Structure formats: structure tokens, C-alpha cells
Amino acid sequence: MARARKLKNPVPSTPESLAAGLLAYQQHCQRCHGAAGDGKGEKAAELAVAPGDFTDAKTMDRVTDGEIFWQISEGRLPMPAFKDKLGETERWELVDYIRTFSRKAPAASSTGPAPHRAQP
Question: Rounded to whole angstroms, how far apart are CA atoms 27 and 21?
């Protein structure tokens, strides 16, 4: 896994790679990890180990693209390995797509009222 940590993603995150990653995610990941990437897919309750929650930005920031790629490739029970099911580019596209779950959307409150500040 230490070697995997250093792997660099050769697939740039483009609309095309994200669209391909979405398709692979829907076919191979969504039933367990959920449509929102929160680990609450329709099959999640049946598993002995809860699927990863890709929406947790703090956790996802600690994981490198190489580690995600390795986990997809090698699997970890109950998740199967995908190195024989998906090509290398497809697995990197999945990494790009999985990253979208933890990215922050622009804050809606930026146009709302200013936060309350205590007066000195």
C-alpha cells in the first residue's frame, strides 16, 4: 500500500473522464456505496463491513488517488477486486469520479446574511 500511496493519477479530471467514471460507478459501485457516495446503497445493509463514505471530505483528503486506485484494483472484503473487470484507465476514471463526492459546492450562504459575531 505504501507504493500505491505514491501513484499519480495519469487521467486528468475532465468532463469526459468524469462521465466515464460515473458510468463505471453506476455499474459497479452504486449498489453498495450509494448514488450519493455516502455508503448507503441498496446492498449496504447486507454487508458485514459498511461501504466507504466518499462524501467525508476530511477522510477523503487523507487518501491519495493512488490509494483509491489500489483499493479499486485489489478490493477489500466484502468489496471485490476490479483489476480483472475494469481496465487501468477505467479505474483511474473511477478515482476522478469518486473524488467529486467530497468536493464542496459553492456555499449558498455567501449571498445570505453575515454570520453573527460577538461584540468585544
Answer: 10
Contact 80, 33 (CB under 8 A): no
Contact 46, 31 (CB under 8 A): no
CATH architecture under which domain 12-103 falls: Orthogonal Bundle (1.10)
Question: Is residue 50 within 8 Å of residue 39, measured between CB atoms?
Answer: yes
Q: What is the pLDDT of residue 25?
A: 98
Average pLDDT of span 39-47: 96
Helix (H) or strand (E) holding 55: none
**pTM of the predicted model, to two decimals?**
0.83
pLDDT, average across residues 19-33: 98
The stretches of the chain forming alpha helices (DSSP H) are 2-5, 15-28, 30-33, 57-62, 65-74, 88-99
* Residue-range domain boundaries for the chain: 12-103
